[in-house]
Amino acid sequence: MKESNRGAFASKFGLIMALAGSAIGLGNIWRFPFLAGENGGGAFLIIYLALVALVGLPMVLSEFVIGRSSGLDAVKSFKKLAPKTKWYYTGYLAVIIGFVLLAFYSVVSGWAFRFLWESVATGFVGQSAADIKDSFHSFTASLWGPMLTGLVFVGLCALIIAQGVEKGVEKFNKILIPLLFVMLVALCINSVTLDGWGEGMRFLFLPDWSAVTFQTFLDALGQVFFTLSIGMGVMITYASYDKSKGNMVRSKVTVSILDTTVAIISGIAIFPAVFTFGLTPTEGPELVFVTLPNVFAQMPFGWPLAILFFGVLSIAAITSGISILEMLVSIFIERFDMSRRRATIVTSLMTAVLTVLCALSSDIFNFFDMLSSNLLMPLCGLLVAIFVGWFMDKKLRGSTFTTNGQYATAIYPIFVFLIRYVVPISIAFIIVSLI
Ligand code: PHE
Q: How far apart are CA 217 and CA 223, in angstroms?
């Protein structure tokens, strides 16, 4: 397929919304609040923000440099930029991560769909704390429920992707991401009116350094990778659709700020409510699926608020899911010379099989999460950092980063320093700590 046939984003706004759509996901609304809850609230936030600036941003920019300078997918990019080397295996690693992560992601997104449905149907009204806990556990442990909802999620992503880059990915992100912001802000405004507002704010923003351990840094770094969609070629793919020749640093900083803002706003929407009803915020992954429904069951106007919250969670999940599937589809189109429709069908069927496995066994579910988020994404990120920092053609790297010397020239040396030393050393820490 010719480069010009690959598709492209039609507008700058579309590009930013698509990038934000990928970044903003379950990571912000489901994962960030419970990690902050477990790791000292404000202390976690400070460490996380520092890591976004020192590791996250340089990583996103590196993937962007690769995608923009090659204009190709995650495998072919390396073939073009480093011909006759084995660097393109990094792209194949991204493919493996894509399938594994998407399967895991589809199952959790399916839970979000199920809770959205429950919110619309009952709003959790009249359910006791024990009922809610039971219903979550019996649903996740059941045979058909998680499988069906996970498959519905994969199907929805496939339907959007099949429409193409501009008419599918871009169009849906341009509608869904602003909608998500409006809904989240509405939830926040409601939070301000609650009795637990002060306590929630203190919890989220006041650092409790006694809860910080070495594990906190690892969790924060893992979260930075997950939330910014780093280490699996998604940013390479989206960057290759960016033909704007605009200021890359500015758009990536904007996206990282949007992403972090959503994580913080989610915390603001969640914690005051949790404290208002005397619940504990350190509930791990159950914070959103058990604690919050309890809150909605007791709160005035809990019903519409529950619909809003699980609506936000479902939208965030879809826009991220499509970015992972798009990365896979773009590679299949090139590698097997397939039409977009066929590539979408093949990749989503493969994902569907893995999703079913993940939904059926909690061991597989946990293994997929651990394998992708903790091990393979950092590994792929490490390879990208080493490639951009040490192997890529320096002239091309510089001219892509600065758009031929037009923008961000003062930041470029800082970027090079971070990507050569700070980023690889930080990632190596994650990997070594796991071995
Ligand atoms: N960034 C998404 C989130 O926060 C997850 C994701 C990871 C999406 C990797 C694409 C690639 O939920």
A: 10
